[in-house]
Amino acid sequence: MKQQIFFILIALFLTSCEPVQKSVGFTTWSDDGGEYQFYLGTDSSVDVVKAFDAAAQAKTYDDFREIFADSATLTYQSGVTNTLDQFIAMNQNRDSLLMANEATLKWTPQHAFSVDIDPTRGGEHVNMMYKGEYTEGEEKSEFYANLWFYVVDGKIVTINQYNQTVLAEE
What we know:
- This protein is α+β, with helices and mostly antiparallel strands and about 170 residues long.
- It has a single domain, classed as Nuclear Transport Factor 2, Chain: A.
- About 30% of the residues lie in helices and about 45% in strands.
- It is built from 4 helices and 8 strands; from the N terminus they run H-E-E-H-H-E-E-H-E-E-E-E.
- The protein has an 8-stranded mixed sheet.
- Strand 5 (about 105-115) and strand 6 form a beta hairpin.
- The mean pLDDT is about 90.
């Protein structure tokens, strides 16, 4: 009888222990303006951003329609905001200008991670840092592009982009 009670108590103890989800920091970057903490996100949201990068690198911009939400917005460092259609057109125009000027634009992802401000509501913020290189003739410039993606239900809803020039060492 004592063994049965012992096993029942152990079973109750094990089933009552839920993993504690660790949260850190603070943010008011939410649709309701409330203050939240950050939780670790998921690889599935990072995978959405990696799919975006793969399509951008391959210049298969029609694939963006599968990766982005219909109402997606993209905001640049300048504050200009584009819709998905405008973003696709901008990429196609940029590619034409690069070809006409015999220039190249290359970028390499440096890191990506996902955080969540409210795991009960869905949606994760994914940060991806790129190192970019623009070359035209003998001139070359490098920059970092820091992009924050908001991913909901496997679709990118927003992107906010910030850039930083890499100064040439002398």
